[in-house]
Amino acid sequence: MDVSIIIVTYNTRQMTAECIDSVCQKTFGIDYEIILVDNASSDDSKAFFEKDERVKYIYSQENLGFGRANNLGAGVAQGKYLFLLNSDTLLENNAVKLFYDFMEKADRQIACCGCLLTDENHRRIHSFGSFHTLTNAIMEKCGVFEKIFRLFGLRQTPKYDNPKFENSQDFFEVPFVTGAALFIRKEVSDKYGLFDPDYFMYSEDMDLQCRYSKSGFKSVIIKTPQIVHLFGKSTKKGSVKKKEMNVKSLFLYMKKQYSSIYFIFFSILFKVFYCLSFSMSRSYSLNEKVSHIKFIIRL
After folding, report:
1. Is the CB of residue 81 less than 8 Å from the CB of residue 99?
2. Could you tell me which of 206, 243, 201 has the C-alpha nearest to residue 64?
3. Would you call 210 helix, strand, or coil by DSSP?
4. 174 - beta bridge partners?
5. pLDDT digits (tens, 9 = 90+) for 130-170
6. Rounded-to-integer distance, Cα 106 and Cα 123, Å
7. Does 75 reside within a domain?
8. What PANTHER family does this protein's entry cite (predicted)?
């Protein structure tokens, strides 16, 4: 088996079916399997997909989150490579074969690769990024204070899809590739692990590749695969709960990847700037603000 394609779904039956259709229509010249992990969907996903002979269907009795669900799928994978693919993506060319061919010829220290994702209008969207730091985390999450930071010379270069990483070659190295379409050497994930199960959602792809980089491995973007990511269509936008999951994962990442002193310093500064910024938002009610700020303080 060349490639095991792992797709995680949660109450997105139609979108997931379209994703699988695109994989089957566009993929040829390679031996692959599709492993579909259902995170306890309550729609008609189970009845629909357990009859689909194209996929190896795994139904979880609980919502494991993104990382643990992918780990579950990887546990039964037979491929030489893992291709983690979001359910809200569509393949537009023979992307799986292109990833496979590249990795077969590439430096063995390249553990992960991705591509330049586009939205439904074929505009470039988030495909890669830099690891979390104190300054880029505050700049990203506390936008109200961006102008203040700039006055003190803390103007931050783009955290995501920074053009400084790009070149005229067919591929370029990046700190991390987004987990929406992530191609991984299984021999590396078998030895160093896949996703840290402590993460439910967000930052797990960054944590994974940060761990790999500390062991000497690289992540790259290759330019030939064409994949549309219907970004955010499989999750609710703007909810306080989503913000809380996002910030909780940020704190978990900072605690795992930095020293205790750095984390304490980060925690204090971030909470001050974030809570002030969120309190000024006009998008949430007073009760939502109070509840959310209490959550942040407890982190």
Report:
1. yes
2. 201
3. helix
4. 219
5. 999 998 898 888 866 666 666 666 656 778 889 899 998 99
6. 28
7. yes
8. GALACTOFURANOSYLTRANSFERASE GLFT2, RHAMNOSYLTRANSFERASE WBBL
Which residue type, as a one-letter code, is found at position 149? F
Q: Is 180 exposed, middle or buried (0-12, 13-18, 19+ CB in 10 A)?
A: buried
Cα 9 from Cα 86, distance rounded (Å) = 8
CA end-to-end span of the chain: 43
**Residue position matching structure tokens 């039956």:** 13
Amino acid at 186: K
Please provide the size of the chain in residues: 299
What is the domain-level CATH number for residue 32? 3.90.550.10
- Tokens at residue 203, please? 């930052």
- Cross-strand pairs, 85: 7, 181
Q: Considering only CA atoms, which of 195, 234, 292 is closest in space to residue 13?
A: 234
User: What does the CA dihedral 252, 254, 260, 266 come to, rounded to 10 degrees?
Assistant: -120
Strands 81-86 and 3-9 come out as parallel
Tokens read off for 20: 């699988």
Residues 179 and 217 in one domain: yes
Q: What pLDDT, in 10s, does the model give residues 172-217?
A: 999 999 999 999 999 999 999 999 999 999 999 999 999 999 999 9
Range of the domain at 286: 134-156+238-298
Distance of CA 271 to the CA centre of its chain: 24
